[in-house]
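For the sake of transparency, this paper describes our internal protein records without simplification. Such a record has a labelled line for the sequence and another for the backbone structure tokens. Nothing more is needed to write down the fold, since each code stands for a local backbone conformation. For reference, a complete record is included directly beneath this paragraph.
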Amino acid sequence: MLLLALCLLPGLARAGDGAGKPLNLETIFASDTFTARLPAALQWLPAGGGYARLGETGGGQVIVRRDPVTGEESILPLGDIPGLPADFRVSDFQWHPGSGFLLLKGPASTDWQGYESALWYVYQVADERLRLLGEPGQALQLVKLSPDGRHAGFVFANNLLVVELASGERRRVTRDGNQDIFNGIFDYGSTEFGWVDGWRWSPDSKRLAFWRMDATAVPRYPLIDELHSYSRVRDFHYPNTGEVHAVNTVHVFDLRTAETTAIDIGHDPDDYLPQLHWDSTGEHLYVQHLTRDHKTLRLWRAGADGEGIELLHTDTDPAWLDITDDLRPLADGSVLWTSEASGWRHLYRINVDGKARPLTRGEWTVGNVIGVDEVGGWAYFYAKRESLIDQHVYRVPLSGGPVERLTTEAGWHRWQLSPDGLYALATHSDARTPPTLALRAADGETLTMLVDDAVPRFGAYAMAHTEFVTFRTDDGIELNGFFIKPADFNPSKKYPVIAYGYGNAGSQVVVNRWGTQRGPTQDLWHRYLAQEGYVVFAMDNRTTAGRGKVAKNLTYGEYGKWAVLDYIEGVDYLKSLPWVDGDRIGFWGWSGGGYLAAALMTKAAPLFKVAVSVAPVIDLTRYQAVGVERWMGTPEENPDGYARVNLMNYADRLQGKLLLMHGTGDENVKFSFTLQFADALIRANRQFDMLVYPNQRHGIADHRLHVFTTMTRYFREHL
């Protein structure tokens, strides 16, 4: 039996609010009832322009601009722009008041690979002149206004172009883009680092830096569209573990000379160049160079002319190194950098001579860097210092000194720091409270509450709420979890439990924020299940976020090992509770959580009576190189580890009811994983259920109501 500790987060109710309307699946998944009414396209404008947002009036869309000091607002009615089509809905904008140019983005569309594009207009406010940014009918990608507001760049058909806004003159930065060559945009295999954007303006607007990804040698993976008289095949470059990936190179285009220069750091083509940044002057680039084994990360500094290349800093790790976007260049030539070299991710200042000085220390983890105020001498960042389930905002002097926590309310804080570092547009939520939006001073003081009722109909519904708990494993590790119980919970009764998890190293599902890990609809579905008489349980294993690099490294060599082992401990914990029906425990998960669901029904059988596995990874030898090799090495280096992870090797152990769900158009976790696992189950004479969504991508975004209705029915019938 486990040694147990139970704690209730202060301020959170043990059960839900009894009064109000009951939840239903149509309201959750097929209406906007619970969509947060936060300002659209909210952003700080450059050059002291205040902040702006999209809005609606009786006359149509407007852009509202506000001064953070005086509170004075000005409104630009978009319907008054001459020549803008009446049916053109603006979804985003970029505005430089100093130059007078405004870029307007139309509705975005996403292709079957997940790349977004849209029609863009450029409007010269003073002269009231409007024209298309691209050619007629062109949907553009990765559009960016230059820092001085006089040019815009974008990607079209895997080529990078730049436009002088005053004249409308377009120049091609590259010409060789095609299905194999990607300029200014990442190929699919490289997007596993977390971004698609493959180009950067220099801060002086005189140059732009970009990646060129050559995926010619990368194998192509087909997606088959069966919804036609004859099937249609769409394929794209998808590097499996151990196979060749796109060759990364970095280049600089000079707008004054129209010349392109290669930045050659002499790296092995089998390595990665996952991140780059300009220095504060626009004369130098910082290029990050990650070895193929993910164990060494080098930071290079290079002149924009390709000369003077020098190694500034090196990080190493016995397992793998995560890539972030935390580098911030400073005016004196030093940079801010985050590293897990101490065993915990902390903030460092690296001088021009390469000497790194820590600005934060301790057994806690720095999250993303928010921004820098060089005049005031502060660096702002997120961290989980006092609590793993909350995210707070902190700052530390750039010269070193005590760390200050700037947010006080428990929950999840996110800031957009103003360009001058004096203000923040700050959102806050917790597990039972929808987000609020406030204008804050940089020291954390609330100046103006902008939105305090983002989901006005939330209070009209009877809600079960999240109860956070901790428990200890047999070897003494404290783990975080949460329950959502029926509003009329009676501890003298026995309840079936539906558990949820994800489990990848560095991930987190137990968080004190609105919508928890995967967004409000999934969280509301969990509350709906509680309304239907189930107890919902989730937990984070010992390799998840905020526990340090040594904890994450436990994953190395055998993906999912501790996700499974710690969930076995979680079931022991559940069975120790007098109100849990230990014979009626179910589980569900998606993607990495889908793997966990299938693993728990095979490797950990017969602990769970029923599980739903959505879009599961099954055999990591057939998954993405970047995403897997950091945790596993290559199949050639670690054949036994890959074999232990491959759930096809455990198909004969399946016990209980298992539902597999997958979209055939999944560009991330291949639909073939589910087919291959199904084949293994059939060969092992194991019964299971399967539901296929034609042409749906990884998130099955078009049919969420059907997905969650099916899962509800499956648990109702079998749990």
Remarks:
- The radius of gyration is 26 Å.
